[in-house]
Amino acid sequence: MGEVRKLQKKLRQIENLEIKISLTPEERFKISRKAELRSRLAELQPQRSGPQQTLGIVGDGKKEKMKRQVEDAPEAIPPQTPPASKILKGDKKFKKQASPSPAVRREETAVDAETEAEFTSLRASWEKAKFRLRPLEGHNDIVTCVVAVDNLVISGSRDTTVKVWHVPTATEQKNLGGHTGGVTCLCAPPPEYCRRLARSLSLSDKERFILSGSADCSVKIWALNIGQCVKSIYTFNSVTALCFVSMGDGYIVTGSDGGKVQVWSWQTFENCQSINSHQEAVTSIQTQGPLVFSGSAEGGVSVWENQCWDRDPLRLLHHWPGQVTGCGGGAGGRLTLSPRGDRVFLAYGQAWLKILQWRNGSTSRLTNHSSITGVTDCVHQTGGLLIGSCYDLTNGESTLNLFSLPQCRYLTSLTWPESPRMLCFATWTTGSGDHRWVTGGRSLIVWEQLSSSGRQRWVKVWGSVDILQNCLDFFKWMYDNIGSMLA
């Protein structure tokens, strides 16, 4: 058991090294030993026994895993669904309540039955869902961040470039070069803020902008239509996280590798606040209305309120260290977060997701893998779905696990043979309501949900003929956007 834990620890260290924005020769040598360590761990792992191996397992003792395989990469088909468990942390005292009346009990039972029926229907629909996967090839290093704007996917990479992709045709539209260090983060300002900047630059009102942060200590603002950098902000620190606050005149919030949170005016691009808020690198910044959430490598989470002031607009509401969030555990960590109401979902390289009640600091956890060797890299929400990515240290397989919101009940898992590690995620929906996702990491892949209409049957027949599918996607994109093009 001691050797297994040592191997797991070494593999975790290597996996963390692999996604660093820059590597030393010594670190590259350590990474070269990954296959050897993984092979040794695979030999020892079947000898283990204990409760760690039973998380998320159901069935007749055959130890079915939470993740399921798909036959072909072009159509990832969700498998049978084992439940994930939600485990409360800490000692909570509950007050004894009076027993409800029979009428109230009947009403509650009816509501519960209706809710359960809705969940059963939702789970059944996701079990039948199909996705077509299309790789976007062009980066020559890991993809660290992705965003989606209309029918475009924008990706940032350790190779220092930002690329713009046209999704319907799966082609590279623009290669935005200008950073001298790896690109670490991206965000897209809302259209109304893009229009303000476009007018000030005498550009078209339909111009869209993307913000990119980099290890070269800069934030660049790119105009997508003309494919140029229109503004560069020097931050004096490596930028490791980034978001846009859509309040007042608008703000850019950045996080640095030293734990600093900085705020920049969208009007003047001047710095209006700098706070040493975290002990280590800020690895995730997200917004929810006037609130800003920042997470750091040591596992801490800070919650800020935007007061729309010209100077010092962010006011700290809460700070929960790694000892509270349960995401601590040493240097080199990578926390990603996704807020929803009073909860924040946290991913921190563990076999589960953490759920932080940010107002009072209470936590719970949601199983995201059936083995303790599973690593959760990112968490994302879209509509009524919570999606967590998982990477198995032992065999190198990756999975997307889907949960229903707000109850966080397990729906299904999506994977395919030799699926690469997924480090970042973005989502959007088509005019018909179908899901479109993009995952980044070792590969950049677009996930296209296939509808149950005739179009799906067409894809099944002609799925191997890529040019026909690309034409079909292009015409569908034209149909969905013809109104905005004529306006």
Task: Give an overview in words.
It comes from Cynoglossus semilaevis. Keywords: Repeat, WD repeat. Residues 60-71 have a biased composition (Basic and acidic residues). This protein has 487 residues and is an alpha+beta fold. It has a domain at 2-48. The chain is built from eight helices and 30 strands. The strands form seven sheets. Strands 1-3-30-29-28 form a five-stranded antiparallel sheet. It is globular, with a radius of gyration of 23 Å.
Shape: globular
Strand content: 35-45%
Task: Please compute the radius of gyration using only Cα atoms.
Answer: 23 Å
Main sheet specs: 5 strands, antiparallel
| Spatial order of the strands forming the largest sheet | 1-3-30-29-28
Mean pLDDT across every amino acid position? 79
Kindly report how far apart the N and C termini lie. Answer: 66 Å
Fill in the keyword field for this structure.
globular; 5-stranded antiparallel sheet; alpha+beta; WD40_repeat_dom_sf; 22% helix; 487 residues
Task: Briefly characterize the structure.
The chain contains 8 helices and 30 strands.
Walk me through the topology.
Elements: H1 2-18, H2 25-32, H3 34-44, E1 75-76, E2 86-88, H4 102-128, E3 130-135, E4 143-149, E5 152-157, E6 161-166, E7 171-177, E8 183-187, H5 191-200, E9 209-214, E10 218-223, E11 228-234, E12 239-245, E13 251-256, E14 260-265, E15 271-276, E16 282-288, E17 291-296, E18 301-306, E19 314-320, H6 322-325, E20 336-340, E21 343-347, E22 352-357, E23 363-367, E24 374-382, E25 385-392, E26 398-404, E27 409-414, E28 422-429, E29 435-441, E30 445-450, H7 454-462, H8 466-486
Antiparallel strand pairs: 1-3, 2-23, 3-30, 4-5, 5-6, 6-7, 8-9, 9-10, 10-11, 12-13, 13-14, 14-15, 16-17, 17-18, 18-19, 20-21, 21-22, 22-23, 24-25, 25-26, 26-27, 28-29, 29-30
Helix pairs in contact: 1-2, 1-3
Keywords: Repeat, WD repeat
Pfam families: WD40
Region (Disordered): 42-117
